[in-house]
């Protein structure tokens, strides 16, 4: 049964992150007076650590799924018209991921950003960015989700443009702002149509309305399309992805890791929550649309990635490829559940469940792997002063700890065993082939080809940066600071541990999946 708590208790990690963000400018002022340039970074890191600890504690105390969750609302302004905070296992899975990667990025930034000015503003925005993302996954209605969505978005625009003395960050930040705003407006139109039809924006109430007999199917599909397209801009789904390859090279590498590892995953969460919760896949057949979007996204981004000479642009297009795999998992889940509902195929239901679990597993493995790659690439770029792949030949040999971490990240994303990326891709492909019909078999084969194609340029990147002899540019450079290397090593270890022993994290992910899709109890 759900547990009712007060708003502050339900939003503990968010409250901590916002409080630390509010105090960080004061720390920055004192930092300037004391001439201790690391104070803001250390303070923000403590904030992330506390928020992560609170999220973990909430998870450990959470009642068992799927009925067990925390709910809260403001007195006199609760559902169905008022706002609601609803925290379930899926919310906490995402929140722990956001706070964990945010913590390691904050540690990395202490040395990586030391030559920049205005670091109190940087850490304030970084804290608010994660607070916004955690708020998005804790929202129990679209109004609350959209408020936190804007906190996340405004913070990310500011961080992309942080190095405002250069033209590239300003241009990329403005493009991101325009495209993301258009996406938000499209999603907002979908919310308006939902409110006009149902008189509420509460997820639970909307689910009851759109599950009732006689619901307007055409109206519903228009809303589904608006939700997928609106949030799909930030998720970097093709053809709404063009902001991402510009934003990544322009932003500090720590922010590239946050954008690629977390922000686009928050958008995927919004798509999943907005579709699976309100429009039951057993009633509405949108799995085919998600699968088609996934194939187009992975294929186009793969071709683009292969043409890149800029290491950060290549990694940016790679992120879009992996969003294709995540969306594919959601599509398999929706398609499998709909097939089970229409023809009673238990195999299709099982495949759908595996697809959703695989999508969540790929969210985790890609967030860790791509966060690692962008942080490692940032270390390479800081030392060599170039993003050109062919001027980074042998850089992994000159920076062995960073090079080894970078190599493991690449192998994981390529789907090589025994790393986390192999587990998630195996689940996704197994789910697709297990559905048992011709359409899904062809679609899964196309995704398998995309996986092989992506592995080719990951191995090319590995060969250039690690296996080749050191070029003149990198012969004199040395390993990065220990403060930069430690987050890389921790992320590398996470990829290895999850790949070699995935069962504990699979248990967490299965509980998270049960918040949105029916998972039959074990006999």
Note down, in words, how this protein is organized.
The protein has helices at residues 7-10, 12-34, 39-60, 89-112, 119-138, 142-160, 167-198, 203-211, 217-235, 244-250, 253-277, 287-306, 311-343, 346-384, 395-398, 400-413, 420-434, 438-467, 482-500, 503-513, and strands spanning 3-4, 70-72, 85-87. The chain is mostly helical and 523 residues long. The protein has a 3-stranded mixed beta sheet. Helix 4 packs across helix 20 (503-513) and helix 5 packs parallel to helix 11 (253-277). The chain is built from 20 helices and 3 strands.
Topology:
Blueprint: E1 3-4, H1 7-10, H2 12-34, H3 39-60, E2 70-72, E3 85-87, H4 89-112, H5 119-138, H6 142-160, H7 167-198, H8 203-211, H9 217-235, H10 244-250, H11 253-277, H12 287-306, H13 311-343, H14 346-384, H15 395-398, H16 400-413, H17 420-434, H18 438-467, H19 482-500, H20 503-513
Parallel strand pairs: 1-2
Antiparallel strand pairs: 2-3
Helix pairs in contact: 2-3, 2-5, 3-4, 3-5, 4-5, 4-11, 4-14, 4-19, 4-20, 5-6, 5-11, 6-7, 6-11, 7-9, 7-10, 9-11, 10-13, 11-13, 11-14, 12-13, 12-18, 13-14, 13-17, 13-18, 14-16, 14-17, 14-19, 14-20, 16-18, 16-19, 17-18, 17-19
